[in-house]
């Protein structure tokens, strides 16, 4: 029988539905009187602290305090918007912290748990009036109810802002500053530059990155002055400037005395637009027939041999995957452009090189030229739960429209100290809008995480990181790539640097075969959906599993299997019903349902606790005839246990994850007009979003497996004439 290809146009089956009934109000741990007794002394203490700050540390006389909400109030609906507005204060960011509540009415609540810490800005004069304002709050007003949601309140200290690591340089630092809604960025820059100079620091004016409501800068000076520098009221974070990771190959790809053959055929398709951002290409290499554009981000800078080897290896991994010795390499799926973003200035260990390189990367992303990109470099810095890094912020902001699929290597620090989490995935692989790739140690079925591959989890949202793994090589099975020189010779290497472009190769293969009808975000969902976890490895090691190297496992369906894709846009606040397409006749026996949701989200860079501005609440309704009261009965499908952090799981957390994937087994007879109901939640700065919130792009991949129904694919197409199998644009490549 001919191949059955995945079924498209699932979005034509969807339709809007009204919202469900409102949930009753919850009980509150604290009353207004108790809240005043606890918080007003804290407010007075905070006011005294900020009045003692140097005038130069408070631009426009603005100060910032931190407000910890009770853990019961982390949902956007509880954000204290009315309270802050009435008090004349402005929220400028947030992060997630652990607190020990004075009282907790939640059942089985842990002694210490996560909550949201809000950074609140206002003039020092406004803060001076805050104790009186709090005293005059009246019971049962919105402001009073929100005041009682606060667990504790205090001034900001330098220790709240300092993130100094021995991994980075000890005299160059990354600076993150809050931007006020009514304050020009240039005015804030000028104030900070002057204050930093008074503390003995020189701010580099060549590179800074305004992203969202923050601006990231670099400063150089003596570490002894950091405590004074960190008194600047709108300063969010100071980090040691880390070096660039993978600036040197993880293992030197020295040529070996075995050759291979370059494919004689052109790439499978000329349509996909693909770019590799790396260390450049040597003047002599065997890949010329498949390289489209080669550009140096800084033409005035010279090449570095090690970087060229790395760039060539990464490009080879995308074009051919791991090359088998003495045979013809696999035919590329597309042509590829290469941008040299590392050069001799990187080699000289310029302390500001990290930002210079980010500027090159941002320029390419903002060109909107490419549907597919790979980045196998970044800061040598493990992900930080408390604050978002400039690299991650830039990537997530540019990728938030969902029009580009970018693979990012998670880093080769997997053997570093685990107790201090130095083995955690590295920036910017914590990006929620990119596809983060770890490395598997073998290409065969007997595989596991390569020991050098960085481990999860990621930040929240984005806990399941890496997203997936791909073969990246190991000392027992190297990843073979093309070596420098016109003669096709192999170099033996390994690293997540090669796993990432290998995964991108598979993604581009889907696009090459199926054409533009499949959106890049849908391809991301297909990659996650098809990933295999046939090992006992923990999810922190391998994410959703290993990417199949055979395209047939992604885009074709066997007997008793149907895979359907839905792709489109979601409107904020609306409810969309996505029916599960089934045959007319009831399915018999056990049935397995597999679902993957992916969406691209705008981000609030300053709000680490509410980073994604979009979230999905997804409800599964298996049988329209089974009701709970007047509503169709629902059941859990996506488990929130995926997002458990140490001693707890936050009920509000899972909805803000940009990738959801799960499967469930049930009797076929229990499915009748089954649906997934999708609610797009929108937030801004941690609060409910207002008018003008943008639409987001989403993709749903749904697989129905019914072993007793060999012709399931055909029967579904017969029952749902709006659906159509996606026929390949070109013949599938055959690999022997």
Annotation keywords:
4 domains; Jelly Rolls; 7-stranded parallel β-sheet; Alpha-Beta Plaits; alpha+beta; 5-stranded antiparallel β-sheet
Describe the model.
It is a single chain. By secondary structure, this protein is α+β, with helices and mostly antiparallel strands. It has four domains: about 180 residues, Jelly Rolls, CATH 2.60.120; about 120 residues, Alpha-Beta Plaits; about 80 residues, Peptidase S8 propeptide/proteinase inhibitor I9 (Alpha-Beta Plaits), CATH 3.30.70.80; about 290 residues, Rossmann fold, CATH 3.40.50.200. It is built from 17 helices and 36 strands. The strands form ten sheets. Strands 16-17-15-18-20-21-22 form a seven-stranded parallel β-sheet. Strands 3, 27, 29, 33 and 34 form a five-stranded antiparallel β-sheet that branches. It has a five-stranded mixed β-sheet with strand order 8-12-9-11-10, sandwiched between helices. About 50% of the residues are buried. About 0% of the residues have low confidence.
């Amino acid at each position: 029988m001919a191949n059955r290809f995945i079924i498209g146009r699932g979005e034509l089956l969807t339709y809007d539905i009204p919202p469900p009934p409102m949930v009753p109000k919850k009980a509150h741990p604290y009353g207004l009187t108790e809240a005043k007794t606890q918080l007003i002394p804290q407010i007075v203490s905070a006011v005294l602290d900020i009045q003692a700050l140097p005038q130069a540390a408070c631009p426009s006389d603005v100060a910032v305090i931190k407000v910890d909400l009770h853990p019961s109030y982390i949902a956007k609906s509880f954000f204290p918007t009315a309270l802050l507005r009435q008090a004349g204060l402005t929220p400028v960011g947030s992060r997630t912290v652990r607190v020990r509540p004075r009282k907790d009415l939640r059942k089985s609540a842990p002694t210490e748990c996560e909550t949201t810490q809000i950074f609140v800005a206002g003039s020092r004069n406004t803060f001076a009036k805050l104790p009186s304002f709090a005293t005059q709050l009246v019971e049962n007003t919105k402001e009073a109810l929100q005041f009682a949601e606060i667990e504790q309140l205090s001034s900001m200290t330098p220790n709240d802002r300092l993130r100094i690591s021995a991994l980075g340089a000890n005299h160059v630092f990354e600076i993150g500053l809050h931007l006020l809604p009514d304050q020009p960025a240039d005015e804030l820059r000028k104030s900070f530059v002057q204050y930093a100079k008074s503390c003995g620091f020189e701010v580099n004016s060549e590179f800074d990155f305004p992203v969202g409501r923050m601006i990231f800068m670099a400063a150089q000076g003596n570490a002894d002055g950091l405590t004074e520098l960190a008194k600047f009221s709108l300063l969010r974070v100071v980090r040691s400037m880390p070096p660039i990771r993978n600036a040197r190959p993880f293992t030197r790809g020295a040529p070996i005395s075995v050759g291979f053959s370059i494919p004689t055929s052109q790439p499978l398709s000329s349509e996909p637009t693909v770019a590799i951002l790396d260390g450049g290409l040597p003047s002599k290499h065997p890949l010329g027939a498949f390289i489209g554009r080669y550009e140096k981000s800084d033409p005035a800078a010279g090449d570095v041999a090690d970087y060229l080897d790395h760039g060539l290896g990464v490009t080879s991994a995308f074009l051919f995957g791991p090359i088998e010795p003495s045979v013809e390499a696999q035919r590329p799926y597309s042509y590829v452009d290469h941008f040299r973003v590392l050069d001799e200035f990187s080699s000289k260990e310029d302390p500001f090189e990290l930002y210079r390189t980010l500027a090159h990367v941002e320029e390419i992303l903002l060109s909107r030229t490419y549907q597919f990109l790979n980045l196998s470099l970044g800061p040598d810095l493990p992900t930080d739960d408390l604050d978002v890094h400039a690299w991650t912020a830039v990537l997530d902001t540019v990728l938030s429209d969902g029009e580009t699929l970018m693979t990012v290597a998670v880093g080769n620090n997997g053997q570093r100290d685990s107790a201090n989490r130095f083995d955690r995935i590295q920036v910017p692989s914590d990006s929620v809008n990119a596809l983060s790739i770890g490395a598997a140690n073998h290409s065969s079925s007997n595989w596991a995480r390569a020991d050098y591959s960085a481990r999860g989890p990621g930040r929240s949202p984005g806990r399941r990181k890496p997203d997936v793994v791909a073969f990246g090589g190991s000392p027992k099975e190297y990843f073979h790539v093309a070596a420098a020189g016109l003669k096709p010779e192999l170099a033996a290497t390994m690293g997540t640097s090669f796993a990432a472009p290998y995964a991108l190769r598979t993604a581009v293969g889907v696009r090459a075969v199926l054409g533009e009808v499949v959106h890049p975000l849908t391809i991301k969902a297909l990659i996650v959906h098809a990933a295999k976890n046939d090992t006992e490895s923990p999810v922190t090691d391998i994410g959703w599993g290993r990417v199949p190297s055979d395209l047939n496992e992604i885009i074709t369906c066997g007997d008793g299997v149907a895979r359907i894709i839905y792709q489109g846009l979601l409107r904020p606040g609306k409810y969309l019903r996505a029916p599960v397409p089934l045959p007319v006749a009831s399915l018999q026996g056990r049935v397995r349902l597999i679902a993957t949701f992916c969406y691209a989200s705008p981000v609030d860079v300053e709000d680490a606790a509410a980073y994604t501005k979009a979230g999905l609440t997804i409800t599964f309704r298996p049988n329209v005839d089974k009701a709970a009261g007047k509503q169709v009965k629902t059941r859990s499908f996506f488990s929130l246990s995926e997002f458990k952090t140490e001693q707890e799981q936050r009920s509000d957390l899972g909805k803000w994850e940009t990738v959801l994937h799960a499967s469930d087994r049930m009797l076929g007879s229990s499915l009748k007009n089954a649906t997934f109901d999708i609610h797009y939640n929108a937030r801004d700065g941690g609060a409910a979003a207002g008018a003008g919130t943008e639409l987001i792009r989403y993709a749903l991949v749904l697989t129905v497996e019914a072993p007793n129904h060999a012709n399931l694919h055909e029967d579904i197409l017969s029952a749902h004439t709006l659906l159509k199998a996606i026929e390949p644009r070109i013949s599938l490549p055959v690999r022997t």
